[in-house]
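Design request, tokens follow.
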């Protein structure tokens, strides 16, 4: 056993790479200080909490310790508003007053930046119009420069949803005239090859952008958008509650989940959660989801679920301060972004909220976001 305790760093690193189960990683890192050091050098897949600002960008490890070593972050992260995140340190950002302006895909690990257009093309019966747009939230299907990279954005413009892939000089709007698609989406995620959005009535619209055949048009029109729309009877909260919705795949990837967050401002903020899964059929429905053995990290266009490795353990939801009076579109109208209504909620303890995330003054540039490294 003593020999195992002194295993070489390279061997320990390979062991940690094979441990996708969070519970196993915690047990192995507790063997001794040597193994814990190896665990810190080979971190778990759990995201970091990112607190952007114009002065500095801070990150915190959720399970481990707030004083643990932190990843090196590019200075490009100081100033932009973060609109969504993806594995590998990629983010969709919007910047108004930094060394550059506009929208971009930004890798905080390397500083690599891919510019995004600021205009969207909208096909109409009478022709095509091109309008300026601002991104509220966005997700990507794969990191650039992959041919599988598509970006879907919830926008503030003449259209609610827009799509882009590398090589396009303009976004392409979602198909119009689809009922739920005309409403304001609250959140967006990528699941099983589809971009999925949910609105304030729990209605769901799923989009699949595809590359059109060669010669079908210029850059912006070289996409076609397939879609499915689902309409449900949404369950509303009490009159004194704000209800916010998040979408994400389950830890296994088999289910699409909707998390409903209930906020009572007069009672101190977030007070409870409900988790549902999409059950397709005739008719489709949102069914209550028994969330055991999972950790859910929810945030606007940055949510992700993880398996704890213990199917009998209660589920936990870690949440950020990203809900504003008047709805998600108000993110574009904030002068500062609070960092107080954040923490964790246990599935097993009704209405139990833990304020376990570090407190900080409001950010001057962006809401907090999950950093998927």
């Amino acid at each position: 056993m003593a020999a195992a305790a002194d295993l070489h760093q390279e061997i320990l690193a390979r062991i940690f790479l094979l441990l996708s189960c969070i519970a196993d990683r915690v047990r192995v890192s507790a063997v001794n200080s040597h193994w814990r050091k190896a665990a810190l050098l080979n971190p778990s897949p759990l995201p970091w909490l990112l607190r952007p600002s114009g002065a500095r960008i801070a990150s915190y490890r959720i399970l481990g310790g707030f004083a643990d070593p932190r990843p090196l972050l590019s200075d490009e992260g100081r100033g932009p508003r973060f609109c969504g995140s993806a594995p590998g340190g990629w983010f969709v950002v919007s910047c108004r007053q930094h060394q550059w302006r506009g929208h971009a895909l930004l890798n905080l690990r390397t500083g690599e930046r891919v510019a995004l257009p600021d205009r969207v093309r909208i096909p109409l019966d009478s022709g095509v119009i091109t309008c300026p747009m601002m991104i509220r939230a966005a997700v990507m299907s794969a990191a650039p420069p992959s041919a599988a990279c598509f970006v879907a954005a919830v926008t503030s413009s003449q259209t609610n949803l827009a799509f882009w892939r590398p090589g396009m000089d303009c976004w392409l709007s979602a198909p119009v005239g689809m009922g739920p698609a005309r409403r304001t989406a609250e959140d967006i995620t990528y699941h099983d090859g589809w971009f999925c959005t949910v609105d304030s009535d729990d209605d769901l619209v799923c989009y699949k952008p595809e590359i059109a055949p060669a010669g079908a048009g210029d850059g912006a029109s070289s996409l076609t958008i397939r879609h499915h729309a689902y309409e449900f009877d949404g369950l509303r909260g009490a009159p004194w509650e704000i209800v916010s919705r998040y979408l994400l795949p389950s830890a296994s990837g088999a289910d699409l989940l909707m998390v409903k967050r209930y906020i009572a401002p007069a009672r101190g903020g977030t007070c409870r959660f409900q988790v549902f899964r999409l059950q397709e059929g005739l008719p489709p429905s949102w069914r209550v989801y028994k969330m055991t053995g999972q950790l859910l990290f929810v945030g606007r266009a940055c949510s992700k679920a993880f398996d704890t490795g213990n199917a009998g353990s209660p589920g936990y939801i870690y949440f950020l301060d990203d809900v504003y009076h008047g709805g998600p579109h108000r993110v574009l109208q904030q002068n500062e972004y609070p960092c107080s209504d954040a923490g964790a909620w246990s599935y097993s303890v009704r209405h139990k909220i833990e304020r376990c995330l570090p407190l900080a003054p409001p950010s001057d540039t962006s809401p907090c976001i999950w950093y998927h490294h």
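Comment from the thread starter after seeing the answer: thanks! The chain has two domains: 1-44, 45-371.
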